[in-house]
Design brief:
Length: 344
Amino acid sequence: MRYYLLLIFIILSTSLSFGAERIQASNIRFNGTPPQMVIDMGGSTKPKYELNYDEVNRLIFIEFKNTKAAEQFVSRNVNGSYVRKVDVVRYPTSVGVFIHLQKNVDYKLSYRSNPVRFVIDFSKRINKKEYTIIIDAGHGGQDPGAIGFKKYREKDVVFAVAKYLREELKNDFNIVMTRSSDKFIPLNERARIGNRNRGDLFVSIHANSAAAASASGFEVFYYSKKSSPYAAKVAAFENSFGEEYGEDTSNIAQVKGETEYNANKVQSAKIADDLARSYSKRLNMRNRGTHGANFAVLRGFDGPGILVETGFISNSSDVWKLKQSKYQKIMAQEIGKSIRNHFY
Ligand SMILES: [Zn+2]
């Protein structure tokens, strides 16, 4: 009898010490189709709650007032296609649930009774094309670009890669091609097309060439007034095609002032570095690195830009990849991936 009295005393004092009865958040569940997260509250009382969303960190924060969390109501790594992880924080009189979303995910919270629960439906953000990418396939028309091993022409190879890149990106970005056929377009007109269409990034696609047939590999350039002697040589080579077809490339002016020039350079170099690493690894090609140089086609564009030398058309093993659509697709995928990484 004494034992039961003691037990009743303990139960009473415990519930008294908590004051008003709190709602218990009992469980967090995920359903696959449609993709949703369910927060079970148990019982029949709907808690007051506050929801905030931090767009920059893609973080939903819900605070349930006068609520405590059950033992199994805990943080977890989800790593799904919609939710990265969930953090549960126990406050003195409330429970905080932080939901870290993956990229491009929309959410909608709704309440259900009997039993009380909150349901968050997730969906992928589609066709929200915020950015415009200018894809510039080098050379074209009477300008074949570099003629390589077994007479493969730069203009054909880079146009194929450019088209695959357009396919790769068109669902997520507005795409403008400086040329969509085998057509000659002067360098300054290419930059102008980019500016007219308010491009957020200019991607010029080329293939390198060298007198030494052994020279091979992948490299990415961006516009810089200063350059190494090697990068200056590559830029002079690409610029020379403009000159050869009657264009005075020195007339192509840098559009914006120094602040923009520096900001664009930093961004361009970042994309270039990311791309050089992943491309050479995936294609098993030598990574010749990234370089700043005075490329006329990049100088005239008002924004960050990269010039991709997809490989050496003068090298037999690079050409073996450059000529095959299977590898051209992979090249486009890698370029596309770095662009996505940069914007999203
Ligand atoms: Zn070229």
